[in-house]
Amino acid sequence: MRVLVTGAFGNIGQSAIYELINQGDKVRCFDIKTKKNVKIFKRLKKLYGDSIEVFWGNITNIEDIKKALEDQDVVVHLAFIIPKLSATGLESENVPDIAYKVNVIGTKNLIKAMEELPSPKKLIFTSSVHVFGLTQHLEPPRKVSDPVNPPEHYSRHKVECENLIKNSNLTWCIYRLAASLPVNLKLDKGMFDVPLSNRMEYVHTKDVGYAIAKGVRSEDIWGRILLIGGGPRCWYYYRDILEKVLEGIGVGMLPEEAFSNVPFATDWMDTTESEELLHYQRRTIEDYVEDVKRALGYKIFFIKLFRPTVRYILLKRSPYYNRKYVPLKVLWEGYRL
Ligand SMILES: O=c1ccn([C@@H]2O[C@H](COP(=O)(O)OP(=O)(O)O[C@H]3O[C@H](CO)[C@@H](O)[C@H](O)[C@H]3O)[C@@H](O)[C@H]2O)c(=O)[nH]1
Q1: Signal peptide: which range, if any (predicted)?
Q2: How far does residue 9's CA lie from ligand 1's centre (Å)?
Q3: Which residues line ligand 1 (CB under 6 A)?
Q4: Does residue 139 form part of some domain?
Q5: Is the residue at 143 inside a domain?
Q6: How confident is the model over 236-293, as pLDDT tens digits?
Q7: Ligand 1 center from residue 86 Cα (angstroms)
Q8: 223's torsion region: left (phi>0), alpha (psi -120 to 50) or beta?
Q9: How many C-beta atoms surround the C-beta of residue 245 within 10 A?
Q10: Which of 20, 175, 192, 233 is 20–30 Å from 218 (CA)?
Q11: Residue 74 phi/psi, 5° resolution?
Q12: Residue 319, in any domain of the structure
């Protein structure tokens, strides 16, 4: 199959490309031409040869999309400005107008361009658990039949896009993703915005890529909204996820007072249907930590060596950590080489 992937060089995009090519599909990547994306494409081209091509373009320009759509069978639409750990370096909540243009107008353009084709194509769109809103007071897990209640620009954009897609004449499937962290993890101050006691389902980016690749070839997913998460064994509190990652890379867990206590829009989800259809739940958070360690390589030695300094720098980035001086005990906690 020929698959057009928008936002191909982001976190989920790169995982999807790998799995699509692995199952024998040809991938056309649609993304903005930045230095970083050009570098990623060069690396992927070396690995995948004729199975991959690129179409540099802007999702806000419908003519770019029309050209990219030629001869494709399925579209996987990932291009979006997300709230945290965004590949673009922009965060939807800081630049809501720019984000709206890319997220909603971009999706509108894509739908319009696809609808104008002689035979409209299939579309997989990645939405997010965020659309359920702040649900910590409700009994988990979230079900697909639960109402949406988007609390921020990003999830309002997702709900608007979901509705546009549902009301289109395309053959569509919507994947609402749980928290899926990139393997090349950057620890930025956004990590402090989630309360440690917040429920959060984890899903490995490679498993999302696998679910997308399986979905492209599936007969059964169309017309459905699927909740895509790691399943009950990946039902965590944010504290568990963060602790595993920070311990794994040698930084060590940071004190509770550095974190927000305003609830965050993540939760556990009922993924029974998606797992039955796609059989994608293959990895756990432990696999992720190993992947992050591998990606960091020798840098882990230096993180461990300079652990108190790294902890100091991180804590000073927290908008919630009000202490003028970070106690030595906090900085040196768990230090060993
Ligand atoms: O105008 C733009 C802005 C962004 N992008 C690309 O979109 C991708 C976004 O990637 P990233 O920021 O790493 O996001 P992901 O973690 O991959 O986000 C995926 O998963 C999210 C849910 O977790 C969804 O909201 C997103 O749509 C989906 O791309 C990148 O390649 C960007 O270059 C564009 O093509 N055009």
Answers
A1: none
A2: 8
A3: 6-7, 9-13, 31-32, 37, 59, 78-82, 86-88, 102, 126, 128, 177, 180
A4: yes
A5: yes
A6: 999 999 999 999 999 999 999 999 999 999 999 999 999 999 999 999 999 999 999 9
A7: 7
A8: left
A9: 20
A10: 233
A11: -135, 145
A12: no
ipTM of the modeled complex: 0.98
Q: How far is the CA of 29 from the centre of ligand 1 (A)?
A: 12
The reply to whether 304 falls in a domain is no
DSSP 73: S
| Structural domain containing residue 86 | 2-188+202-239+265-293
At 182, which CATH number?
3.40.50.720
If you search the block for the tokens 């599909």, which residue do you land on?
Answer: 25
Residue 176 to residue 188: CA distance in whole angstroms: 24
Query: For the chain, what is the mean pLDDT?
Result: 96
C-beta separation of 177 from 201 below 8 A: no
Q: Domain tally for the chain?
A: 1
pTM of the model: 0.97
Q: What is the token pair recorded at 149?
A: 């209640």
Q: What is the CA radius of gyration of the chain?
A: 20
